[in-house]
């Protein structure tokens, strides 16, 4: 007996289900990696909020960063570092354009790829979080959206409510998990 939705012996519904499952696993895997960067061998991950590193790293990308001893950081590396304007800590991801040894300490001149001029202040070795090993575009937009009230409703409350409604519908219509 062949399924009713086949052509040439291929069950296209089953193929579509497997493709959908594969896509879902990849998408969930990317978000798990962003939340738990150790799952992909990185120490930390950050959402890039500006386009200062375009086109190499666009705004909305997630960068994966590994801790590296300052002595191993060289010109051309993309680093993430702490910048503390006004007492609040923020992270910046820029390219090292010059390594300077001042007072026996390594410091780094950085610049965003899309910026015309280097950053005005040197980055001390102690401020460096690590070197960017790779980035995933677009995922950061969803992560930032999920941290808003509307995002929480759209991505968590909405699907949960839909699941409850569908389960109640199945129970009331008698199409639950009954065996005949």
Automatic annotation (TrEMBL):
GO terms for cellular component: membrane. The chain crosses the membrane at residues 15-36, 122-144, 150-172. One of its GO terms (molecular function) is serine-type endopeptidase activity. The keyword Mitochondrion does not apply. GO terms for biological process: signal peptide processing. The keyword Ribonucleoprotein does not apply. InterPro entries: LexA/Signal_pep-like_sf, Peptidase_S26, Peptidase_S26B. It is found in: Membrane. Keywords: Membrane, Transmembrane, Transmembrane helix. CDD domains: S26_SPase_I. This is Signal peptidase I. It comes from Haloarcula mannanilytica.
């Amino acid at each position: 007996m062949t399924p009713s939705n086949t052509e040439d012996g291929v069950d296209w519904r089953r193929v579509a289900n497997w493709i959908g499952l594969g896509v879902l696993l990849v998408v969930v895997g990317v978000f798990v990696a962003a939340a738990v960067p150790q799952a992909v061998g990185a120490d930390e991950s950050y959402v890039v909020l500006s386009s200062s590193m375009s086109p190499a790293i666009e705004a909305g990308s997630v960068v994966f960063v590994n801790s590296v001893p300052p002595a191993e950081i060289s010109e051309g590396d993309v680093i993430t570092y702490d910048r503390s304007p006004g007492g609040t800590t923020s992270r910046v991801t820029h390219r090292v354009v010059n390594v300077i040894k001042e007072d026996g300490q390594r410091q780094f001149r950085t610049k965003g790829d899309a910026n015309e001029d280097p950053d005005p202040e040197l980055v001390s070795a102690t401020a460096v979080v690590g070197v960017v090993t790779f980035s995933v575009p677009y995922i950061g937009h969803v992560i930032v959206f999920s941290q808003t009230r509307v995002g929480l409703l759209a991505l968590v409350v909405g699907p949960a409510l839909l699941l409850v409604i569908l389960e109640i519908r199945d129970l009331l219509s008698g199409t639950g998990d009954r065996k005949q």
